[in-house]
């Protein structure tokens, strides 16, 4: 399967996984939810790696770079995004986080020599623009989050959201040379996930209030967390690493950034909530951009 479809499948996994995460994240709290799903994802990835023997292919130099990538992308990036959401609300934070695709393209140009020209550049611009429009105008006024009316901490929130996007781009860029070298995607994901979990566990052990669970973990909530971890962090991240083996880092980032658009029809099917006009407009632009890129 080509890298374009691998990245799109990863975006679909993230979209469906996030659909199941709302109740669990509200029940446990963002940090506790992330810690539990990282533990599950890490356990599944190491199990798969042990069964396949792929862990034996890891070299010490690769492990160090994977640990650094996990610390930047999974721990710092996710933490900054949650903090941004607390100040801006999910919609505004989501629009700013969507710039990670632009950061990826720029960083890939300067550090990997990847370029976008002609219709590819037009397609990439349509895709990113479509995603941002779908997030920014995809909800009706009555559906907007209560935090979105607040202007307190606006500058800090914007800075945190952009930091999260930059961390996501940097961590992806760091993985490209490793995947070209033939790094096993499952083993690589296991190391990155272990790093993120270890750092989140450290925050919890230090007794930080924000890391504590709001409510106890119940079987139902555990089921939601397990499905989310399996789809988003195990399958989704493994597909992204596999896509990086044959695709440019910037292109993979562009295709994988469409998850906010893919979740719109899922919300319609599950909650019978018809998307607003901005969602339709953004979806049309995103599909047009994907069509130009795949050609």
Automatic annotation (TrEMBL):
Its main location: membrane. It is a multi-pass membrane protein. SUPFAM superfamilies: Multidrug resistance efflux transporter EmrE. One of its GO terms (cellular component) is membrane. Residues 4-134, 156-294 form the EamA domain. The keyword Transmembrane applies. This is EamA domain-containing protein. The lineage of its organism: Bacteria, Pseudomonadati, Pseudomonadota, Gammaproteobacteria, Alteromonadales.
